[in-house]
Amino acid sequence: MVYRLAPDVASRSADEIIRSLSDRVYTDAEGLFNLWLDYSVADVMRYLGTQCELYHHDLSGQELEEIKSTMRAALETYSVSQLWSVVWKVVRDAASLANREYYNRPKAAATIPGKIRRNLEKVQRESIELKAWSRPEQHPAGTLGMVLGEILGVDENTSGQRVSSLVTWLTGQSCSPTVEAELHEPVRELMTIALAHDVGSRVMLRFAELIRAGHDVGSAVEEIGSALRV
Questions:
Q1: What pLDDT, on a 0 to 100 scale, did the predictor assign at position 208?
Q2: What H or E segment, with its residue span, contains residue 140?
Q3: pLDDT of res. 179
């Protein structure tokens, strides 16, 4: 899958179009996040295709769709560059498997979707820190990636959690009346406990740290509140 800008009817340059997209007011948080997911899944799958070609792994359409589904779910938490490292490891494991007795290349390739899924399940279950791979020179970011970078300030190293928070902030969803109403009681309780224990400054610093790490306001408040109640 390739994403590129469609020809502009007003014959504007690519730079002008990107600037106009950057200056727009965005309100559809779900749509914008799904667009980032679409692009990021394509970025991961392109890397997978390159690695499979290198090791002569031929994946079926069904296997590719299974991997896409797994990667889309994983990208809600991790970054593209972290998932590249998962792909790199699994594809090489499959290549090694192909050389074993009673195995062949098609059988080894068929293990890739399951290996990716189980690897990510283990990472989440055991809270393993995923390595991040650098973008290959032969694998430049697409035009849509550049636009998303201008709008959100993200790239292949930005986690899905962080992107979600940025989208929420950009579209104003974090300041909506519904969100404010939901947060009123938890925030009031948190500040009451913090002041009672004279740890207001520490709480605010921790809150800022969690937001920078990509947590939304609600999850940051919940995590700090849970720690204070222990």
A1: 76
A2: none
A3: 58
Q: Is 47 exposed, middle or buried, given 0-12, 13-18 or 19+ CB atoms closer than 10 A?
A: buried
CA distances (Å), origin 166, targets 53, 95, 160, 213: 35, 39, 10, 11
What pLDDT, on a 0 to 100 scale, did the predictor assign at position 74? 96
The SS3 call for residue 189 is helix
Q: Which two tokens stand for residue 208?
A: 């800022």
DSSP state of 136: P
Question: Which residue intervals of the chain are DSSP H helices?
Answer: 14-23, 29-54, 61-74, 80-98, 105-110, 112-125, 143-152, 160-170, 177-196, 200-212, 217-229
Q: Looking at residue 175, what DSSP letter applies? A: G
The predicted structure's pLDDT at residue 2: 47
Tell me the mean pLDDT per 10 residues along the chain, length 230. Answer: 53 57 70 94 97 94 96 96 97 90 85 96 93 93 87 92 86 62 81 86 82 73 83
Q: Which of 158, 26, 149, 29 is nearest to 82 (CA)?
A: 158
